[in-house]
Each structure stands twice: as C-alpha cells, then as structure tokens.
Amino acid sequence: MAPSRLRGLVAAVAVAALSLSACSTGPADSGAAATGGSSASAGADAFPVTIEHAFGETTLTEKPERVATVSWVNADVSLALGVVPVGMPADTYGGNENQSTPWKDAKLEELGAAIGTESAPAQYTETDGIAFDDIAATAPDVILAAYSGLSQEDYDTLSKIAPVVAYPEVAYGTAWQDSTRIIGEALGLSDDAEQLVAETEQAIAEAAAEYPQLEGKTFIYGNLEPGSAEGVSVYTANDNRPRFLTELGMVQADVVTENTKGSEEFFIPWSAERANELDSDVFVTWVPDEATEEAIASDPLLSQIPAVESGALVADSDNTLTLSISAANPLSLVWALDRFVPMLGEAADKA
C-alpha cells in the first residue's frame, strides 16, 4: 500500500474515547471482565503501574478487566496475551468477511469469542475517523494505543474521558516487541509478554534458517507506483516492515540508511528520476495486482532499480499478507512466515 494512502488509512484508525475504573485519571463502572489467558487473573499485584509514552505517562491503579483498542496491532497483541478486547477496530484493509484477519479469527475462536458470537468483541470502523461513541459504548477500563498515530490533540481529548496507553516515541513506529511488552505491562502480563516475544523471535529465526540465502542480503522495502507522480516511497528503519527483514538476517541498503539518518518518519518520498540509485540485492513492494508488477518492469525509470533489473523484486498483491507485515505483531508474523519468507528466498536467489 502506498505510504500516502497508508498514512491516511492508519491515521483514521488512530484513537478512541471511553470511560474506566482501573486507571487513575477517571473512575467509572468497569463492567464485566474480558476473557483472559492462563495468567489473565494473576497480575493484579503488579498494580499500580505507570507507563511512560510520547505524551507523558499513564497510571493504571488496578488490573484492567475491559480493554478497548485503536489502530492496528493493539488488539492482536491483547489477543495473543489471552485477553479478548471488549472493542476493537474492524479490519477494512486486508480483512475478511468478518472484517477481521485469519490470525485474529483463529485466536478469537481459541478464546471462545469468535466473531458473530455473544462473547465476540464489538467492532467499530475507523475509516472515517475516531469512533468515539462506539468505543465509549463498550465501557472499557483502558485504551491500548501502543502502536498508533495519536496527535497531541487526540491524546488530550481522549485523556479527558479515559487514560490511554500511547506509543513511546514515534507515531506508527513502535516495534512489535515493544508494543507487546507495553501492552503486557498494562494488562499485568509482563512475564507472558516476554515469553511471547521470545517465542515469536524464535519462530522468525527458525524460518530464516530455512532460507540461508537471506543472510546478509541487502534490501529496500518501499512502494513503487509506475506512472505515478509520486513514483517511489521508501520505508525507514522506524517501520516494522524493514525491521522484520533485518530479523530474518537481511541488511537495510546503505542508500536508505544514509538518506534517513535522524528521520522520525516511517517512510520517505523518492523521485522516480533517481530510481537507479536505489541499489540493493532485493526490493520489496506492495502492488494492487500482477499487472502492476509487469508495469514496474517496463517502466522507463523504475526498471532501472538494480533489484528490478535482476528480477529480485518481491511484489506482494495480497492485501492480507501486506497487512500481516505492515501491522506486525506476534500473531500476524507467525501467520506470515510460511507465506512471505519463501518469496524473499526466491528473490534472494536471483540477486
């Protein structure tokens, strides 16, 4: 998905408003408890807990029982930790008929809260903006936004009605490991979160071991739009997509590193007229269809990208697969490994 469109889509799912009783900044009736995993009731003695983030800090005085989420990632991590949110955004991009994803559906069913059942989370669309009323109706104890793009105004508005666990530094830049640990701390499940991170990293390492040709190969993860005035966008090391490739043993291309030093953005624009400078062994891009992949190869400018010339282009037209890497989390990454890593291995063989 093009960063310009991606930014608009993700920004639309950035925040939500609600009331709570478990947090220090606004008492409310907590209502029924969310479904928990093996340790879901074991972390009460961890509270109160104070979590620092980009807008200051949020103190949770008690273990949250009703959890609402905004943006991508946060609901996935909550589910991976065994806690079913009372409310979560619908997956309008890359989602299925449930407005969910295969990895979320599988976990919801495991936890007895499949979409369409009485125990399922409420779903709200954030395509057109923050679903304040829908989220408030779920009466949650905490809002999880560890991976999100909240603005100061968003955060201030939300904080008047409920505490928010926001991202630590960069909007849309929270590493999946950090999101997992932050959410684990907020839910009183820090030990579970550490185990989840370790297990996910082990799964990634095992997948990488099956494709040793990836080790040390340079990459650029970007977006190529043939015939577009924008032309090229390149994801930075602040984004989870390049992070995932480095976890597989690949190395971000020098041209990206040198041109993104000090950047707090998750992508940078790049002139198509300079496409030939994008030197890497492998180039990964989202495309809307196979025809676009063919158009890239025949484009007079984009075809000069070294990885395109060599055939080492990974052009992903599966929106669900794209989402699994873009919104990286322990559930989505494990689901993606068998589908995405072979594509990288094939490209690396051509480099």
From TrEMBL:
Residues 190-217 form a coiled coil. Residues 1-24 form the signal peptide. It holds the Pfam family Peripla_BP_2. One of its GO terms (biological process) is iron coordination entity transport. InterPro entries: ABC_transptr_periplasmic_BD, Bact_iron-sidero_bind. Its main location: other. It is found in: Cell envelope. It comes from the Bacteria. Residues 66-348 form the Fe/B12 periplasmic-binding domain. One of its GO terms (cellular component) is outer membrane-bounded periplasmic space. Keywords: Coiled coil, Signal, Transport. Belongs to the bacterial solute-binding protein 8 family. This is ABC transporter substrate-binding protein. It comes from Arthrobacter agilis.
